[in-house]
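Below is our example:
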Amino acid sequence: MTPDSPLAEFEFSSGAQRGSRLTLYANRLLHHGGDSMETVPLAQLASVRVAFERDPRKLNWAIGLLVVALLLVAVSGPMHGGVTALAAGIKEHSGRESLDSLLLASFSVLGAIARSLPMFAALLAAIAAALAALFWMGLTTLTLSFAATERFYAVRGRNPLLLQFAELVATQLAARKG
């Protein structure tokens, strides 16, 4: 094996670095993606960490949006029924034309809003389901720690290939520090 031949490679298929790749050499780690390239000498690397994580904020948002969607569905029926009854009452007891027509127009707008609430609730429920799915999938994150900073590389889901790559980087780092 020549000193410039790669020991391991990992290509990002998802996440923010999709399409880029990490390549481990005997003395450096290379991140190459699109229009950029970064070389990290292993002598500058302090530690390597890899972890599977789930973001609890996504689950909290999903639960909150689902509760709001259920409340909208629960309110839309009675609201539509009440507005329709008020509009019917105004039509029966027409007195002053201008005030009656203004109230009737206002009630018809409120009725339209009440009819659209279930569709809006369905949209919120779909967003909540997507957030819950993203929470469940989680991220596998590789963290490279230096003296003053850290670099994060993340892929969606539980990724054993990134774990193996991190183990090879850690082994190479330990051999250099040895």
